[in-house]
Amino acid sequence: MSNQTEIRRRRTFAIVSHPDAGKTTLTEKLLLFGGAIHVAGAVKSNKIKKGATSDFMEIERQRGISVATSVMGFEYGGYKVNILDTPGHQDFQEDTFRTLTAVDSVIIVIDAAKGVEPQTEKLMNVCRMRKTPVIIFINKLDRPTQDTFELLDDIERQLQINLNPLSWPINNGPDFKGVYNIFDKSLDLFKPSVQDIEPGISFDDLDSPELEKHIGNDARKLREDLELVYGVYPPFNHEEYLAGNLAPVFFGSALYNFGIQELLDAFVKIAPWPRTVQTEEREVDPEDDKFSGFVFKIHANIDPNHRSRIAFVKVCSGKFVRNNMYKLIRSGKTFRVSSPTAFMASQKEIIEEAFPGDIVGFPDNGSFIIGDTITEGEDIHFKGLPSFSPELFRFVENADPMKTKQLNKGVDQLMDEGVAQLFTSQFNGRRIIGTVGQLQFEVIQYRLEHEYNAKCRFEPMQMYKACWIQSDNPKALTEFKNRKHQKMATDKRGRDVFMADSQFILDMAQSEFKDIRFHFTSEF
Ligand code: G4P
Question: How far is the CA of 362 from the centre of ligand 1 (A)?
């Protein structure tokens, strides 16, 4: 197969949701329908169950599972589907955001009864920022839900994206009958049996009395609903979906295998293959001859005796070949990978080659950091791995003076893995760790102790936000830094960061220093 054919049959995406909407269940069912697994229950949930925030064995166990399920690849109807897993726990949302930089599209799962939840909104914001095409799967139709039109209006308003239903539910909760598939004009009847996989009934003519035979009195309501749907929503515009302006919507019940086949069949047809990727220097076309890719995730080995890690590389162009020489742009060093891995049907295996859209695992003993670009030699730098301002901040102090070296190495490596963000105060040199959740501080402390034999202590600090600052006016920048010198810090890449104590202080600074640009993500 030519490179072009290989590229065009690849579908690399992530399933994301607010916790409990059904991401894990849907992932598992897609693998089941894709033939990658044969029984439900084979994929373990990677989520850290509620209430387990201090159960570190659980975290360690989950980390073991999540490396196996980081990428789930399978062949389906001539397509190569790669599902990238994202952590369920919201304290690890940065990992999810980073994974979203390596996908070509996203499926957002929404609980039909709950609608849009806080995490759904945040995830959508990241997709919107990157213009990632999004499909919405409304789950749990077997439970009572609000009116479908109202639900879609709410989602459209809260997620700020135009919707286009490609299927339509017939009732919900205990009266749920199934969905009419607008995309391929078929009727799928709901049978709440957990393993049944039955194709839909082709149903072109909705005026036919046959409809009554299948769904009884609900037929009239369905006809009325669909008339309204065709009136309100214009026909599906594929280009608008690919541009990230329009989200097709499917309905179903992941738990009962319902609506999954339809979702998967429509998904492989409409979802994009790998797109061009922006670097600081130029756009990289997946069909370029030469290999390029970037590291979007680093996974540490859970066995402290083998402190090797896996760097997950998204192939962006050309063809990756085992044992070929490649260049790590940040260090300028060349290297070859003798045992690159890929994950097919949750089995890790050594691969000979990989194409754009694929994710390759490079064994790593500390050479890579998140965001690294790898090429055949050209000095380009992939953009688009934003760090968001953390929400919680603590000073990190050494609690065992004999182990300073270990602590520094541990902190450095954990930050390279993207566990949290490190800032160094320009005022007194103290190191500040910023996270989005309390759990990350616990993970850092635990891993420093168990993997690096170092002890740390966190000290509280009053901090609202970290903002990256920039200005075209060097005088204004110097003046700002002098005035705020106690609150200035440097991030890992040496950039200036203003640590604002409160929203009030930030607002004041913004209105007083008009020549300074304040950025709330590190990508600008
Ligand atoms: P998440 O990864 O998004 O956090 O959600 P997950 O798939 O773990 O699903 C959360 C809960 O919702 C699970 O129940 C799951 O069985 C249930 N669920 C998923 N899809 C459906 C659906 O279509 N209908 C209904 N009624 N329930 C659904 P749980 O009791 O929390 O966990 P478990 O003990 O069943 O694993």
Answer: 33
Query: Does 27 contact ligand 1 (Cβ within 6 A)?
Result: no
Q: Which residue range(s) make up the domain with 341?
A: 277-375
The response to whether residue 47 sits with its C-beta less than 6 Å from ligand 1 reads yes
Of 493, 254, 233, 246, nearest to 371 (Cα)? 493
Q: Find out whether the beta carbon of 413 lies less than 6 Å from any atom of ligand 1.
A: no
pLDDT, position 340: 94
| One domain for residues 99 and 162 | yes
What integer pLDDT is reported at residue 50 of this predicted model?
Answer: 44
For residue 466, give Cα distances in angstroms to 170, 424, 470: 48, 12, 13
For ligand 1, atom 10, name the residue with the nearest CA: 20
Q: What is the pLDDT of residue 94?
A: 79
What is the model's pTM? 0.86
88 lines ligand 1 (CB under 6 A): yes
Residue of 184, 160, 165 lying closest to 230 (CA atoms): 165
What is residue 48's predicted lDDT score, i.e. its pLDDT? 45
Ligand 1 within 6 A of CB of 96: no
* Residues with pLDDT less than 50, the chain: 46, 48-54
> Does residue 382 sit within a domain?
no
Pairing of strands 392-398, 421-425: unpaired
